[in-house]
């Protein structure tokens, strides 16, 4: 997997919206956060576009993605927010362009589809992390979410333990492999396509938002029957963002589903649709342990030498 150089103050970064237009005020607030980090922000031409013709809109969103990768001045691409529709972009992406012009690519939720499409065909480390409009706005932003961008500058590895959130072990053990995964619904939608996650020998991250327990159960069963859990080395359960009553049901589903597996499973990582939303690189080596519960993730960028 290709790793990019760490960011430096003064670098140009692009914001695109491949899954839907952001709230303008929220995006403006998020941009100020990036500028405070010392970055120069360039907004894609079609970030706010809304059209009845979905085909034309998809072409514009694709153009923004290609423009950002093509521009040699751009060092990173941050998605504005989630939404829907990125699966329709994946077959049209110029992956040769990406391989020849690799950039830091960052997002989550519906962007999960693109994170693994770009990995599969662009051989590029991607990043599952908080997005500019939906997570860095003044209403939602937390210090934890904002700090997730710091390793892009320092090249430091990530250590996630109970200091960030109280972690609970479902299944004891130790697992090591590439960190992959993201939103469960998007992992399901990619199954059987060239863009599905490659979880062979990997630590699999799963998060979700506002799905009832029976849907979580059904989706996990589909992944199991598709063989996705046959060769994983561990599972990291992120936030499932449900109301308290449904959360109890979801936790029971997760406990029952993973009760007899042979790999470690740990829950309650603040990754995904939550605040704070801790960003993690995908495609890099990770180690999951349970005594104590701890996730170590290698840096997603290369440190710059002095």
Describe this entry's structure for a reader.
The protein is α/β, with parallel strands linked by helices and 306 residues long. It folds into 2 domains: 151 residues, Murein tetrapeptidase LD-carboxypeptidase, N-terminal domain (Rossmann fold); 145 residues, Glucose Oxidase, domain 1 (3-Layer(bba) Sandwich). Helix content is 32%, strand content 23%. The protein has 11 helices and 16 strands. Strands 7-15-14-9-10-11-12-8 form an 8-stranded mixed sheet. Strands 3-2-4-5-6-13 form a 6-stranded mixed sheet, sandwiched between helices. A hairpin with a 2-residue loop joins strand 14 and strand 15. Helix 10 runs parallel beside helix 11. The two termini are 24 Å apart.
Rg, Å, rounded = 18 Å
> How many DSSP H or I helices?
11
CATH fold descriptor of the largest domain: Rossmann fold
In the CATH hierarchy, what is the architecture of the largest domain at level 2?
Answer: 3-Layer(aba) Sandwich
Q: Considering DSSP H and I runs of 4 or more, what fraction of the residues is helical? A: 25-40%
Query: Class of the largest domain, according to the CATH hierarchy?
Result: Alpha Beta
> How many structural domains in the coordinates?
2
Beta content comes to 15-25%
The whole-number mean of residue pLDDT values reads 96
Q: Can you identify the CATH superfamily of the largest domain?
A: Murein tetrapeptidase LD-carboxypeptidase, N-terminal domain
What about the largest sheet?
8 strands, mixed
